[in-house]
Amino acid sequence: MGTRSYLLSVPSEILRIILEFTLLVGNLPNVALTCRTLRPLATELLHKTITINISFSGFYIYQIESLLQSNHSGLKFLKDLRIQDQYNYDEGEYPEGISLDYVASFGRSVMEMHLRLLLRRLYIGQLREFHILTHREDAVKTIPNIFLSQLTGVKHLSLPGEVIRNSDWITDPKTTPKGLVSLRITNICSSQDFVRLWQILEKNVDSLGTLYLSSDFKHGEIIGMLLSLNSIDPVFHFDLKDLMPELLAMRTSLNLTNLQHLRIRGIPNLQAVRNISCDDLFNLHNLQTLRLDSCAAADDFLLEIGKHQLAPNLRSLQLFGSCYSATLNEVIPLLQPLETLYLRPHYKSYGATQEELSFSILDYHKGNLRRVWLEDPKVVTRSSDTVAAAGSSKLEIGNFPEVEELSALLENGNEFGSLDLPINTRLLRILDSFPPSRFGIDGLAEISLTVIKRHIGRLNGQKPALSVVSLGPYRPFLDTKAFISEDTRVKFLVKYDEDKDMGWCPVLTEVDTKEVEKKFPEFDIVHSERPEGPWRPV
Q1: Are residues 320 and 415 in the same domain?
Q2: CA dihedral 134, 265, 287, 364 (to 10 degrees)
Q3: pLDDT digits (tens, 9 = 90+) for 211-228
Q4: 380 and 313, same structural domain?
Q5: Which domain of life is it from (predicted)?
Q6: Residue 120 neighbours by CB under 8 Å, 6+ apart
Q7: What range does the domain containing 306 cover?
Q8: What pLDDT, on the 0 to 100 scale, is given for residue 284?
Q9: Residue 513 contacts residue 495 (beta carbons within 8 Å)
Q10: How many CB atoms lie within 10 A of CB 497?
């Protein structure tokens, strides 16, 4: 049974639950948006979110219009509008009348036409969130001028670099967004992008709490980050040190005193900021979350923060391919007690001497750590020589009583299989190393389930808090009924994507999912997004 007929057969009360959080336009079939069942729900659903995918034909937006023509009052509840291109159709999945050959040329103009009509029906100041989440260079060229008046009053804004680079409304005091709570700028690839960014920040110094900056990544990100090949780094299109003179020439002192969450992705040489006085640009005193993704040469930036206690309220440190292990070994003990630690060190080129991440760095935060994500192929395994030198044989994560989430790469199966989970663990995420370890796909599942069995056995009959187990890749073949009690439901997270600008593939196909459901009826098969790591700004 196809998705279309399946949705038509779902009772309205179930549809209400499915759509209550997000009305994901691009992923629903044509007929679902016009069917009689959905019409009564329009008014109460649209006060939540509409997500419009731009990698499809414009007919989906047309269906939104059709849905509202009989009840325009539903539009006044719309507060959150997202435009994104995260969904790719396979051949044969396009709506009737749209073929693979014509969708690129025909779909764009239709989408823009209906998007204009939809936005014209919004009241000025109605939107509280507006997000354009796309990495396509041609995706938003004609969109910016459409919604100038609708941006008044927006508190959460996401825009690609192309918009702020090519639109004069950013520099116009009448149209520049003010009072922003969160700002996300992607596809930053020139100094002009940063100059425009600074002009936005100047108007929001007192209100901005979350800032997310991302450079324009190409194929280097997929190769260098996702596959963790030490010999390949991401491809950077600009260097922060090259554009700092332009920023300083503006003579601005942002001093974002309320900044609580800062994420910087793919911007190299952050120490250029430190050398020119970071306090003039970012005030880190109230910073609670710092995440650096593939920011080459960020070691000095982090060392400065640790040595001078520039972020005394930091509670979440997340470093994805941005610092060497030696830097982490030095800095993390200097920080205030952390609740979240997410580490994937940046390694030297292939063949160079590799330093290891020391387990002892966690001891300084033992009483506070709740989320430990160690995506480091060298964390789990230690050779006998290394053990003798380091004085530590394995990660004694069971001694961290407050830990609720644990994520690690599998390399040494025997050592990982004997791992004791903290009693309050509710999420266990296990990934195979790259290249795959000698245990292979089946070994990954077997060792992971062994960890669960040991954990349940240590609870002396108590119901475990563990609710989600994320395995990848995973192939079901084990009989788990022997140690899964009737009151224990272990949820396997079987389908996920990284933050949509990163191309993770689903762990299980639809066929595999059905096989799991048949073979393990005692398990909950969770169809949801991959937990991206602990980046959770409010």
Answers
A1: no
A2: 130
A3: 888 876 543 333 223 333
A4: no
A5: Eukaryota
A6: none
A7: 209-349
A8: 81
A9: yes
A10: 15
